[in-house]
Specification:
Helices cover 28% and strands 18% of the residues. The protein has a 6-stranded parallel β-sheet with strand order 3-2-1-7-8-9, with helices on both faces. By secondary structure, it is an alpha/beta fold.
Length: 241
């Protein structure tokens, strides 16, 4: 029986789904870069850089405390649920630029977070030491002023700040390199290093982009652009697969 299960999983086609901020817009989470995005009110250099953290860690933690409160009120949208539903017929790896956990809440079982996870906090001396990474759950969603990790450093958001390395990009590239189908949802393919993942996909495999905005894709002849939001776009894509 175990051998049969192993064989059928290996026999499934593999889909890698790269998602960006547009994936979660329908769940009520603001994007950062749009005209009414979070960067309008919270300058990136204050809340999302290492320099900003060192200058005012209390301000940075208060910003992410606020975002966590918004996230626990959000629900996965139909797009998230349809991505998870793909697992009924395919091996699916979700690579997300988003720091929310809505893919997991929708049922996706293999999610690679490129830019960190909002619901987690870590050591500010070494962000990626597992024993100092903690998941916050309601009602305890806030990092208190001066609160410390197990190594004695200040707790900081488990977020990849601008200018920091993206540890999971290697894992994401390896997953993409073995994909049979590559899907991009809610990202303009302008944010690196995530945008570069498309070049790791095997030559000639079907690619799909779900995004209501114009995106320059003429250099990708095997890519189909579905100009819709995440939920409607996923409905259309499932009909094509």
């Amino acid at each position: 029986m175990h051998y049969f299960i192993y064989y059928t999983l290996r026999d499934m086609k593999k889909i890698v789904v790269l998602t960006g901020a547009g994936m979660s817009v329908e769940s009520g989470l603001s994007t950062f870069r749009d005209a009414d995005g979070l960067w309008e009110n919270y300058p990136v250099e204050r809340v999302a850089t290492h320099e900003g953290w060192e200058r005012d860690p209390e301000y940075v933690n208060s910003f992410y405390n606020m975002l966590r409160k918004k996230l626990v009120e959000a629900k996965p949208n139909e797009g998230h649920r349809l991505v998870a539903k793909l697992e009924e017929k395919y091996e699916v790896v979700v690579v997300t630029q988003n720091v929310d956990n809505l893919h997991e809440m929708a049922g996706s079982t293999h999610v690679v977070h490129l830019h960190g996870e909002l619901m987690k906090v870590s050591s500010s001396w070494d962000v990626d030491i597992p024993k100092y990474i903690r998941t916050l759950t309601p009602p305890n969603l806030e990092v208190a002023e001066g609160e410390k990790a197990g190594d004695g450093s200040l707790l900081r958001p488990y977020i990849v700040f601008f200018g920091e390395a993206v540890p999971n990009i290697t894992t994401a590239a390896a997953e993409t390199a073995t994909a049979d189908i590559f899907i991009v949802i809610g990202t303009s393919l302008n944010v690196y290093p995530a945008a570069g993942l498309i070049h790791y996909a095997p030559a000639g495999i079907p690619m799909y982009l779900i995004d209501p905005n114009d995106v320059k894709t003429d250099h990708l002849p095997n890519l189909t652009h579905i100009k819709k939001g995440a939920s409607e776009g996923m409905k259309e894509l499932i009909e094509k697969l």
